[in-house]
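Would you kindly consider the sequence and fold I have copied below?
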Amino acid sequence: MTEPPLELAFTVACPPEHAFSVWVERTSLWWPKSHSVSADPGLTVTFEPRAGGRIFERTPAGEEHDWGEVLEWDPPRRLAYRWHLRLDREDATRVEISFAPAAEGTAVTIVHSDWQRLGQRERNERGWGGLVRHYVAACTGGPHAAAEVRPGGR
C-alpha cells in the first residue's frame, strides 16, 4: 500500500506576497544551518526565481552545494521544486507549496511527495515540524511566533 504525501497546513499573519518572499528570498534567515550541507553559520540559501532554477547554499568561502531544482514558480501563489538536500539527485523528492489569502493572513499548504521510496516519513514529519516554526517566526517578525500546523493527507 502506498502512503499518501505528507501534507501540512498552517496560517501566517502576513500577506501572501510576504509569505512567498520569506520562503524564497529570505530562506537564509530562518533555515536552520544544521539542516544544510555545510552547516556553515554564514551560508546563504538561493532559489533562482524561475522554473529550472537551482536551489543551493553558498558558504562565505564561495563553496556551493545544490539542494534542488525549481519546477514551478508562480509568485505569490505557488512554488514547486525537486528536493535532494544531502542526497543524490536521483533520490529527489517533490515539494509543492501554495500561499492563499486567508482572513488571518496567508494559508500555507506544503505537500511533500516521493519521500515514500526512501522510507523516511517520520524523519520528514519531524523535519517539517521544526522548519515551520522558524519560517512562521520569520514571516511575523517574532522568535516565539506560533502556528497551528495541521497534518493531513490526500
Observations:
- The CA atoms of residues 137 and 145 lie 5 Å apart.
- The two ends are 14 Å apart (CA to CA).
- Residues 143-149 have pLDDT under 50 and may be disordered.
